[in-house]
Amino acid sequence: MARDLTIAVCQTGPIQKRAQRAETVDRLVALLERAAAAGAEIAVFPELALTTFFPRWRIDDQAEIEAFFEPAMPGPQTQRLYDAAARLKIGFALGYAELTRVDGGRFNTMDLVGHDGKLVGRYRKIHVPGSSEPEPGTTVHLERRYFEPGNLGFPVFVYRGVRVGMAICNDRRWPETYRMLCLNGAEIVLIGYNTPLLLDEAPALAHLRMFHNHLPMQAGAYQNTVWVAAAAKAGVEDGQALIGGSCIIAPTGEIAAQAISLGDEVIVHRADLDLIAICRKVNFDFARYRRPDQYRLIADQV
Ligand code: ING
């Protein structure tokens, strides 16, 4: 029996700092409705999909900072999105700024929500880039001012019988993200990102932003025989340009679908999960090639 899952990537255009949470949630509900109407069974939204990418600023006022965070998910403003999932029978992965009530921890988080509107699993961004203070000559990127590194590892969850992992933005650039998720059994990796177009710290590399967006995700998909679906928050937010390039990538490494705008856009692809086994016949069959004793021996000799 062929196994497949129809995936939607719900790219959003810019979310301005002045945007009310309610209007942003309206946009996300509309995107989820378009995804469901296109036959998708699961959707992925960008990183920090409820707010502007606020780590572009150095903010001191704690109340102003906490206004970007969600102390509970779903909360009064976001319950409508969870209700829409149940109404439309489509799950989603949503990136947002998490404030943990238990110990006041602050994480760059992505939740996987089932097609009943209930939480399936949570991932907290491990590769938190940037700094806590602006650094001269660099694109201001203060995620380390606002977020701790994730403390949940690389978990994999079962959604409609499919093993799903999640990753957030800079995580997608690191090969271990895909390898850990796939050693944990992932068949699909859902990613959200907010990536600045400009790279003040390395102008010589600025022309490579889209290449360095797709390259690691295509390599990760190919070298771990996994489906990758990645949603950008794109366009110009309060003067800062963010790249688009949302895409769905097959375990072959091919881009199966790609966004063509910098606005709210839905792309959909039926992911053939049997393609994973076909690719593993060619290469990357972990059980066949990964001999822990052999690796350990080499390490001992180094
Ligand atoms: N954004 C960037 C990304 O990895 C970054 C971080 C910024 C990397 C600038 C390099 C240069 O796409 C997030 N949100 O991780």
What does this structure look like?
- By secondary structure, the chain is α/β, with parallel strands linked by helices.
- It has nine helices and 14 strands.
- The chain has a single domain, classed as 4-Layer Sandwich (Nitrilase/N-carbamoyl-D-aminoacid amidohydrolase).
- The strands form three sheets. The chain has a six-stranded mixed beta sheet.
- The longest helix has 17 residues.
- The radius of gyration is 19 Å and the shape is globular.
- It starts with a strand and ends with a helix.
- The mean pLDDT is 95.
- Bound molecules: D-[(amino)carbonyl]phenylalanine.
- The site of D-[(amino)carbonyl]phenylalanine (ING) has 12 residues, from loops.
